[in-house]
Backbone:
């Protein structure tokens, strides 16, 4: 009998709490093997400060069910990179704290950096002969983790992007006068989420007419020509761009505005690439143009989750518990697609091989000289966005589980 | 027996098509009095170009039901102001076109400017002895029309703002380090929609800590002091501002950045007030700050509609048809609240008294020296956001009726 410890790390997705729910639910079922279920408050960083909770003392009624569709990170999060040097005292401190709490397994829900944490802790543990197991549960809207078909969080963000871009397309067409609308979508280095805007396109409406990902060098002159051509085909053009598009020298388009933009107090102003491109269209083409940065809601909104994503995120958590109980460590739970149609097998991959790598959007799915996405991507992404949200509402707004940092004053 | 003509005008709301559905549904029920039901494509402007449809030829299956939760304007829209001079030939042309189609009643769904159109057409009609009735159906997310308790479109936008701000609050609290998040909400002159962010606040979480409306002069120094104070109370501060906040000289805060902001091509860059305030917080307070402009989705998204709003928008349309059949003209359909709880009576108000006025957010509901909203507003707004969306999904994304400008190539 031992206790387990769970943490959440990095930017939350719409389903990071579904994974938490999966870990906790499964652990509470395993009463013969697992005693207490602890949660780090604010990840490794908060745990180092002595902040953790006992789930059974905190959970009420059907919180574990409601957590599946609760946004943000119930436990709070952190951005904390463990030292590369195992002599750093942080390792001793952490393992001493694990020992005090009789921790037998640690689950860390996060992206690349979190897998780095899982990898380092398990390697340090191996070095000192610890029997603690470390399991990573993937999470990122960017879908850029290696060795897994996709990542929990991506499906819901993709569904949000698709639904929102569809509403934007529907709306932007109402006037008969020409217009260009630029939608800036998250993705600094990987274009998966921007590509999901394809889901908003039906055969007859060609919008979004142009889609640009960071994996392909962006050229402003080519962009202007493409928009000019697009506007001869429809009176309203919707363009989707990743925030991280860059020119062939690697300079981000969002940096094109930096040097000269200052506010009235002389402070430098930063702006997104969408705003830069809006300005270029207005000045080079002269037609009505607006830019829309989907911003935080595409990552954090819990009212457009994919039920497939929610269930898979939950299952990944519960699969992780089973893996730890079987003695697995230094692993991340991954997804493997197999057979005809859409079938997912849960697998374990080395956390160390996942971290510090990024899975780029495949070259062969970027078509039309970097301006469009191949239909094959639709076959890939469609199953991931299926199934509708089940959020409950109270007084007109969604009803969620209150995260620990809202519930307990000391964590706020 | 005569025919009727319907148009949509101005920026669409999430429920402008629900009102359209209400007019068409009721008109089709009145077969003994109304023959054909026509729709202007792209409002008065498109109708002048000869563009209109016959609804019965276009509608399929349960389109009228699906239209209730279809975003954008099914008929297309326009921004077209009729001349103040009745000698202008546009009036003769329009009434000639009405005569050719044997139009007995015109329904125009829109905001202030549309009511101006209804008013002018009915006055011109009276002048020339026409028997055509002109009825306005209100629509605006701004909730700034006079002589009506509220306007269709506001409830859904308010619900979208409330749900999105709640998700943002939940998300912004995940880190233990201090942060400020500024949410910029639509409302150039009226703060109703920004005030709806109050719905995201529960008693325990005080966020959004600060709410600024355009009805109260904005002072940057005071703002900085208020944010500094707020951040002593919680480690993450969410501030909601109307896009139209202005200083006591009437200068928009969004204009504070204009003079110096240029991109690398030397073009002037425009940015919202949220971005300006983000920059001010970063520089004056030095803590992490981000701004989020809710932008178009708050107006056009159809997946966070209030069912109360949808039903009222539909009913306003159908009430308008009944009014016209009773011989009413030059009227806008309005809402009157009565009795205990929430009860709405549909009434008729003079279109001429509505247009060219704006209903401001009441002074007595702006409290704490312009930094907060009185709880009384919650009693007002809560019934308007109740009831959840009923959008159907297909292949993971919402399924809508295809607007005429997507359906017919000549209107695109």
Residues:
């Amino acid at each position: 009998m031992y206790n387990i410890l769970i943490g959440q790390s990095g930017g939350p997705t719409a389903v990071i709490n579904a994974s938490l729910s999966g870990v906790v639910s499964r652990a509470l079922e395993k009463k013969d093997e697992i005693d207490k279920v602890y949660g780090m408050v604010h990840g490794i960083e908060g745990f180092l400060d002595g902040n953790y909770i006992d789930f059974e003392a905190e959970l009420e009624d059907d919180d574990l069910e409601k957590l599946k569709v609760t946004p943000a990170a119930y436990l709070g999060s952190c951005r904390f990179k463990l030292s590369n040097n195992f002599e750093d005292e942080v390792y001793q401190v952490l393992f001493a704290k694990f020992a005090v709490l009789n921790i037998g397994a640690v689950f860390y829900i996060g992206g690349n950096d979190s897998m780095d944490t899982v990898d380092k802790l398990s390697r340090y543990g191996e070095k000192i002969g610890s029997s603690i197991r470390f399991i990573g549960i993937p999470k990122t809207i960017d879908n850029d983790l290696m060795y897994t078909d996709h990542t929990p969080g991506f499906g819901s963000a993709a569904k949000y992007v698709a639904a929102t871009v569809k509403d934007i397309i529907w709306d932007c067409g109402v006037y008969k006068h020409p217009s260009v609308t630029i939608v800036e979508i998250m993705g600094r280095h990987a274009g998966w989420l921007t590509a999901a805007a394809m889901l908003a396109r039906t055969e007859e409406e060609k919008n979004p007419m142009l889609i640009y990902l960071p994996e392909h060098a962006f050229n402003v002159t080519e962009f202007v020509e493409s928009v000019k051509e697009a506007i001869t085909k429809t009176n309203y053009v919707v363009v989707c761009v990743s925030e991280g598009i860059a020119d062939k020298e690697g300079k981000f388009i969002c940096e094109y505005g930096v040097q000269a933009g200052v506010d009235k107090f002389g402070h430098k102003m930063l702006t997104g690439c969408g705003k830069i491109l809006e300005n270029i269209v207005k000045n080079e083409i002269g037609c009505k143009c607006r830019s829309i940065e989907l911003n935080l809601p595409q990552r954090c909104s819990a009212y457009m989750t994919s039920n497939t994503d929610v269930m898979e995120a939950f299952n990944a958590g519960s699969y992780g518990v089973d893996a730890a109980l079987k003695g697995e460590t230094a692993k991340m739970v991954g997804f493997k697609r197999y057979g005809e149609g859409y079938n997912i097998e849960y697998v374990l991959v080395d956390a160390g091989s996942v971290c510090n790598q990024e899975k780029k959007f495949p070259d062969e799915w970027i078509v039309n000289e970097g301006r469009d996405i191949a239909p094959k991507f639709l076959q890939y992404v469609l199953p991931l966005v299926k199934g509708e949200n089940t959020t409950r509402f109270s007084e007109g707004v969604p009803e969620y589980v209150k995260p620990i940092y809202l519930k307990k004053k000391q964590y706020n």
